[in-house]
Amino acid sequence: MRTLWGVLSAVLAVAPATAAQAAPAGYDFAAEAPAALPAPELQPLPAQANTPTPSAQPVPRDPRLEGAVDRVKALPRRPVRRRHRFELTPQAALSVNDGFYLQGLAGGALQFYLNEEFSLGVAADWLYGRVPTENLTTLRQVYFSVPTPLQRPRLLAQAMATWTLLQGKAAVGRRGLYGLDLFVSAGAGVAPTFAGRTPVAAFFAIGQHVVLGNLLALRLELRDALFIATQPSPMAPASRLQQVLTLAVGMSFLLPGQGAARW
């Protein structure tokens, strides 16, 4: 026990002497600390010339494109306004489904547009002439036969509803853009015959408008009329479904003129 205590006493006596040798007397650590650096002085930047950025400089344009930039719009306007306007169309037509006769028609249509796509109207066509074809001559000379006689209509009259499906524009050469619209119509009416009968008829059509101006449009139409026709017979008359398919061409006038402003 005494031996352990002696060892501890010797260690404690040696430690102060070692610290005194490590730090000599009169040495000041604070004197060796570096002085604080002065704050840097900020100098104003020199004024720069007001030069435009590259994006602000004008972009050279091709002279060939002058006047053509605004020709096609992302959302093109309607070629003509039809809402609350009348459309008067005189037209001529020719039958295309009779293999023995070419039937001519002349008539017209009057429509009123409730909005830009939908209209109600009436139409009538008078069948004024019939020209035989070479098929009729061949039938008579080769087969010694004649077509089945049916009561021919002399007038096709209907009340119809028309719906515009598609609208667009088309360029024809260098004359500019023309408005186009595709429409379909359906109606009901009568088909008086030369025999004095007046059968009820159903009408269907599909057509195309080519807008030539605020007041004028070319109208092309394929129309079909269906009605029950009576076949004369010495024994008992027979009834058959008769179809008159015609191709019509007309010129439409939009009235009144003050409603034709584009939008």
Strands, count? 8
The helix-strand sequence is: HEEEHEEEEE
Question: What share of residues are in beta strands?
Answer: 35-45%
How much helix is in the residues? 10-25%
Quick check: average pLDDT? 76
**Major beta-sheet overview:** 8 strands, antiparallel, barrel
Uncertain residue ranges: 259-263
Compute the CA-based radius of gyration: 49 Å
- Strands side by side in the biggest sheet: 1-2-3-4-5-6-7-8
Shape: elongated
User: Helical segment tally?
Assistant: 2
Structural classification: mainly beta
Terminal CA distance reads 117 Å
What does this structure look like?
The protein has 263 residues and is mainly beta. The protein is 11% helix and 44% strand. The termini are far apart.
Short summary of the structure?
The protein has 263 residues and is mainly β.
Record keyword descriptors for this entry.
263 residues, mainly beta, 8-stranded antiparallel barrel, 2 helices
List the helices and strands and how they pair.
Blueprint: H1 2-22, E1 86-95, E2 101-113, E3 118-132, H2 134-142, E4 155-171, E5 177-190, E6 200-211, E7 216-231, E8 238-255
Antiparallel strand pairs: 1-2, 1-8, 2-3, 3-4, 4-5, 5-6, 6-7, 7-8
